[in-house]
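Chain X:
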Amino acid sequence: MNKKHVISILICGLILCFLSACGAGEATATQEPPLPTLNCPFTELSWNASPQDAVDTEGSHYATYDSVYGGICYTWPKEYNGHNGTVKYMFDDNERLMCVAWAYGSQSADELYELYNTINTSVNDVYGESGYNTDRPDNYGNVWYLQSGDIVLSTMITSDNKALQYAYLHPEVSNAQPVQNQE
């Protein structure tokens, strides 16, 4: 092979590499990044789940109401951590899962506080200390600010109602950073 052929082959190779890299960059730029995993202990669904997936998983006996995300919230009775509560799947107006929550009501503030401590400890063991904590006798909770979506553990105790909610939020509806207390 003479020198001109070698240079021509090298130039063609460089042009092919350049064109391949440009094409790959365009394909990558138009693809949406994959959703983080929903690592929730009271459901096996993913953020890609549809309302039908929730029905297939939890059963056909459910209730619905309007979701705070513009779609429908589906609820089922569900036992978690030895307590019979309610699991909620909240969808937006495009039927995208935005929040999964488990709620539990009790007549006993002490029982709620014990359950709260159990769940709080298990989440701390996995994700570390929360980025936000409110410790009031009637309303206490923690928020873990994660790239995979916030985790919110909260309680409300009044003379009429005593409830705990443990929620996993889709990254799109999660806070990028802790919100300061507004008092």
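Chain Y:
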Amino acid sequence: MGGKYEKLTFDCYAKYEKTLSIYLDGKLAQEIELVEGMQTVTVPLNYAGTIGFGSFGEGWIANAILSGERTVTKPVPPANATYLADACTINGGARGSVTDTFENEYTNAVELGGTATISLNGKYKTLTATVFKKAKTGESTTETRKYALKYIFENNHTYKFYVDGNVVAEIDLWDATSPQTIEIPLNYGMELKIEGSNSVHHLFLADAILE
């Protein structure tokens, strides 16, 4: 769903009483107790990227309508911004342009897969960036899905931010399907380490600004 919708409403027919499980971004979000016959169901989506339905035996859903669409726009950085991609030495990351799932293009992006270390030299208090994830390039759709499912069930898909060895923030990759703004406290530290729990999904820090 691309992280664009607030809720989903649909007609549901069940042949007998049953529980319908709803999964958002691979995690169990809601269990709906169905009665025999027809009913209308509304599911809060909270702008999730994907929705999944657990099997509920003999039945079907129809007239499914997505609503509450939001427009995600790229923030405009200040003209005199100090960009992470330009100011720091980055080991384990690539720099350049990238386009997110809403077709916003960023020219000062840093792509991180696995673990990266960034030299700060004690100059900065905070790091502000637009973050989102994408599957690793160079893999087929089948391979990407296989690895994605593996890490959903292993619950192994986070990035941790360390400043001089201390954890200051943590991001769950499944919450970064759609672009969102984060602020990481740097506390004038010397080194920022970003450690990913797997390399199947890469984390993008777009228009990352040091202040």
